[in-house]
Amino acid sequence: MINYQNIFATQGINYQNYRKLIDEKLAQGLTTGDDDTDFMVDYTKLNVQRMNRLDKTVKLSDDLSNALNNLTGKYHLLVITEGWCGDAAQIVPVLDHMVSAAPDKLELRFVLRDKNEELVNAHLTNGGKAIPIILFLSETKNEVLASWGPRPEVLKTLLADWKKETTEMPVLAEKLHGWYAKDKTVEIQKEFTEVLKGLS
């Protein structure tokens, strides 16, 4: 059985250190994970720009803020991710804003997918290791109360349709990030609001 609390406490890093790790890897011409091809390194650089922008522009909706205020317990958020993951770049800044708004109720940690085989294999998406996966954990028990990922439901449907037209990664990435740019984290925040309501 996976010891989620142990992974959270001993392997998890906070948002600032996650961002620092990505920057340190890029300074060496690398990215996190097992694929350091030029494409993945360049894609990681774009992800840093995306996260930098969202760090400054994310504003929590009233519904999400209310859901945070209404939480009655304390929870650990464990994120399975990698620096090269485009979806993660669009999503994790929202999590950081959520935790900053409710530091007495939420604690956030990140672990890398490719260093946590057992963990990610327990949370596959349609048999694949899609990320990010956000696990909402009890603060005191070794228990996953909810999980979310790797992207909003509406985007899962759109991506499945786009993949019928092309499997070229650059084309799909352009469509994906175009959607995120137009949505401005609205769908992400709606879905996190529903998850939080389920915890309260």
SSE blueprint:
Layout: H1 4-10, H2 15-27, H3 38-57, H4 62-69, E1 75-81, H5 86-101, E2 106-112, H6 117-121, E3 133-138, E4 144-148, H7 153-165, H8 169-183, H9 186-199
Parallel strand pairs: 1-2
Antiparallel strand pairs: 1-3, 3-4
Helix pairs in contact: 2-3, 3-5, 4-9, 7-8
Question: Termini distance?
Answer: 26 Å
Could you state the order of secondary-structure elements as H and E? Answer: HHHHEHEHEEHHH
Per DSSP, the total helix count is 9
CATH class: Alpha Beta
CATH topology: Glutaredoxin
CATH architecture: 3-Layer(aba) Sandwich
Task: Strand order, main sheet: write it out.
Answer: 2-1-3-4
Mean pLDDT: 96
**Count of discrete domains:** 1
- Helical content band: 55-70%
CATH-level-4 superfamily name:
Glutaredoxin
Going by helix content, strand content and strand pairing, the class is alpha+beta
Strand content: 5-15%
Model regions low in confidence, pLDDT < 50 over at least 5 residues: none
Q: Whole-number radius of gyration?
A: 16 Å
Give the overall shape.
globular
> How would you characterize the largest beta sheet?
4 strands, mixed
- The total count of strands amounts to 4
Structure write-up:
The model has no long low-confidence stretch (mean pLDDT 96). This protein has a four-stranded mixed sheet with strand order 2-1-3-4, with helices on both faces. With 200 residues, the chain is an alpha+beta fold. It has helices spanning 4-10, 15-27, 38-57, 62-69, 86-101, 117-121, 153-165, 169-183, 186-199; strands at residues 75-81, 106-112, 133-138, 144-148. It has a single domain (4-199), classed as 3-Layer(aba) Sandwich (Glutaredoxin), CATH 3.40.30.10. Helix 2 packs antiparallel against helix 3 and helix 3 (38-57) packs parallel to helix 5 (86-101).
